[in-house]
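RECORD TYPE: inverse folding
INPUT: structure tokens
STRUCTURE:
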């Protein structure tokens, strides 16, 4: 072989290597015979376009690919399937407006005594097979503690599902005599509360008092009609004889906003039906508190409020305490804003994202895995206690039903409950017995 042939063979080899590299081949060999001529390449099977490079192989060596490549994978971006959003949770909104003038001590006491009985009725409702979100707001009017320019009224709570907060504000109420401006307080409640804009939600005002509906600078008829246009039902409860309430325009006010009218004896002592399981239910209700893990800046204050409202309910009667415990066992008693068990269950917070100093003291020295296990163990214990309360509450209600076949419906809770049952059914909301 002369130098010319060697040079040609070398150039040919370089060209072939360059072409092979351009096509991404990882394995090639250039063979020459003793005359420095290039060896013929082995004929390969026909390949797809993605495999259009032909390997130059040693005929004595079997092909050993570096990796198994699936050539059936498409270059198109994988289709992303979005999960449908869950349906919006329907709401039941109730604004409770109480006359706190000098003669209304009995009304305030009835409201305190029967708060948890009323909300328990709402707790046993379903809207399209889902539990609705229950929100309460609280107003007081007719109090000399407030200026005339403000209508002698005050909003104690905007709409909230934190009923411990509503209970706290309710138990702080005291009576102070003044003028009762029904039209003005209805206008305030209808326009300044955060009412839902959805037509399928149930929106109710309950106003109770004992003075004519016509008092004050705002015409009650205009206020009631405007509330009705917003989809708000006004239910009036006159504290006194029915005929006086009708004469004082309480019935007419309710009809203007598609509501109901009733009269009660606000000074009547509400019958508290004691049952053999009341104390056990109350005890279990308080035991639930040990499963709450307060976090964040408001956690300790909210946990203290929970205990205080237990004490307030127990101070009214054993029946009131049992009713509160029954509500605490329901799915409506949600404290995600301060309790780690509820918050993690609802995925409103990520446990790992909470600063150590904002965790309960007992959890601060735990590692991440221990913290998660601790939350889960409290959730399980809570579920067990709640199941016991629910079972006992069924027995409690059966006992009450056996004692009371018929009673005079002349108290605040009876007036509200009868109205709620009728209006939730008219709205297509299912109620459980």
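DESIGNED SEQUENCE:
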């Amino acid at each position: 072989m002369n130098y010319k042939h060697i040079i040609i063979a070398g150039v040919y080899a370089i060209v072939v290597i360059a072409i092979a590299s351009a096509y991404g081949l990882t394995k090639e060999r250039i063979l020459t015979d003793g005359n420095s001529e290039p060896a013929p390449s082995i004929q390969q099977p026909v390949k797809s376009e993605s495999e259009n490079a032909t390997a130059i192989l040693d005929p004595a060596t079997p092909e050993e690919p570096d990796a198994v490549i699936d050539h059936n994978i498409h270059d198109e971006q994988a289709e992303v399937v979005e999960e449908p959003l869950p349906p919006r949770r329907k709401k039941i909104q109730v604004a409770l407006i109480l006359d706190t003038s000098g003669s209304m001590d009995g009304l305030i006491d009835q409201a305190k005594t029967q708060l948890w009985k009323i909300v328990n009725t709402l707790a046993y409702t379903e809207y399209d097979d889902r539990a609705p979100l229950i929100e309460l707001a609280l107003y007081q009017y007719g109090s000399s503690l407030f200026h005339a320019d403000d209508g002698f009224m005050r909003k104690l709570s905007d709409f909230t599902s934190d009923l411990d907060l509503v209970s706290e504000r309710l138990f702080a109420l005291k009576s102070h005599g003044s003028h009762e401006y029904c039209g003005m307080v209805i206008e305030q409640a209808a326009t300044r509360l955060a009412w839902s804009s959805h037509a399928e939600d149930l929106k109710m005002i309950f106003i109770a008092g004992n003075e004519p509906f016509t008092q004050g600078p705002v015409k009650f008829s205009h206020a009631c009609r405007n509330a009705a246009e917003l989809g708000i039902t006004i239910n009036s409860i006159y504290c006194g004889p029915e005929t006086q309430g009708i004469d004082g325009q309480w019935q007419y006010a309710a009809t203007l906003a598609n509501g109901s009218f009733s009269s009660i004896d606000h000074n009547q002592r509400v019958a508290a039906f004691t049952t053999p399981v009341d104390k056990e239910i109350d005890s279990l209700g308080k035991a639930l508190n040990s499963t709450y893990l307060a976090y964040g800046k408001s956690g300790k204050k909210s946990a203290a409020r929970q205990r205080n409202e237990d004490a307030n309910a127990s101070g009214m009667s054993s029946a009131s305490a049992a009713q509160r415990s029954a509500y605490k066992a329901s799915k409506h008693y949600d404290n995600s804003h301060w309790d780690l068990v509820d918050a993690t269950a609802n995925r409103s917070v990520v446990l790992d994202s909470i600063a150590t100093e904002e965790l309960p003291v007992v959890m601060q020295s735990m590692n991440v895995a221990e913290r998660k296990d601790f939350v889960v163990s409290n959730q399980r214990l809570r579920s067990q206690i709640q199941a016991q309360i629910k079972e006992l509450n069924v027995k409690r209600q059966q006992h009450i039903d056996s004692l009371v076949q018929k009673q005079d419906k002349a108290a605040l809770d009876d007036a509200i409950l009868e109205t709620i049952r009728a209006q939730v059914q008219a709205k297509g909301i299912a109620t459980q017995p």
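NOTES: Confidence is low (pLDDT under 50) at residues 22-78.
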